[in-house]
Amino acid sequence: MKIRRFNRKDLGDIVEIEERAFPKSPYSPFTFLHYALAFPKNFLVCEHEGKIVGYIIFHSDGHIISIAVHPEWRRKGIGTALMNEVFKRTGGKAMVEVRESNKIAINFYKKLGFVFKTRVPLYYGDEDALIMVREQDLEEF
Ligand SMILES: CC(C)(COP(=O)(O)OP(=O)(O)OC[C@H]1O[C@@H](n2cnc3c(N)ncnc32)[C@H](O)[C@@H]1OP(=O)(O)O)[C@@H](O)C(=O)NCCC(=O)NCCS
Question: What average pLDDT is seen over the chain?
Fold first, then answer.
């Protein structure tokens, strides 16, 4: 497994992960290309034997724009490895909006040291967002 910057050739694999991870509201291929152009250093992929198994896009201040891991590759530490790349760049600080029904993601962020900060009513149109933050580097990471 290796984590590296996104490359245009990764787009097909990323779109497949996206459609499986967010079937209600996947980002379009154009959105990914926009992020690749706008934040080339902050769009990372995890590659395994030539296939992309996960990705993360973030702002330099640690605001997570999106993270997803291929369903067949979940629960193997890939999401954590991608988040650790962000923490390395921000000194541990990060922030994310998450659908309140996305209990798996909420657990994932809690495990990484995020805490609940506030709720944004109907942020997703049909659902509230929880804002979760990670304030600083934690010893166990
Ligand atoms: C959230 C997501 C990125 C996690 O990726 P992952 O590679 O499976 O995560 P990891 O293997 O690093 O898991 C780290 C910890 O998160 C928690 N976690 C992850 N998946 C979980 C699950 N299905 N149920 C409960 N806790 C879970 C656990 O505490 C886990 O540690 P453990 O395996 O030692 O118990 C992945 O589930 C995903 O792509 N989900 C769909 C997209 C999504 O919801 N993105 C976030 C939007 S805000």
Answer: 95
Which atom of ligand 1 sits closest to the CA of residue 80?
A: 12
Instruction: Tell me how crowded residue 119 is: count the other CB atoms within 10 A of its CB.
Output: 11
pLDDT digits (tens, 9 = 90+) for 54-86: 999 999 999 999 999 999 999 999 999 999 999
115 lines ligand 1 (CB under 6 A): no
What is the C-alpha to C-alpha distance for residues 99 and 129, in angstroms, rounded to an integer? 5
SS3 label, residue 81: helix
pLDDT of res. 48: 97
In the numeric block, the tokens 């997703």 are attached to: 124
Q: Residue 41 maps to which CATH number?
A: 3.40.630.30
Q: Check pocket membership of 108 for ligand 1, CB cut-off 6 A.
A: yes
Q: What is the pTM of this model?
A: 0.96
**In this structure, is residue 141 part of a structural domain?**
no
Strands (E), 1-128: 2-5, 43-48, 51-58, 64-69, 94-99, 115-120
- 8-46: per-residue pLDDT in tens? 999 999 999 999 999 989 999 999 999 999 999 999 999
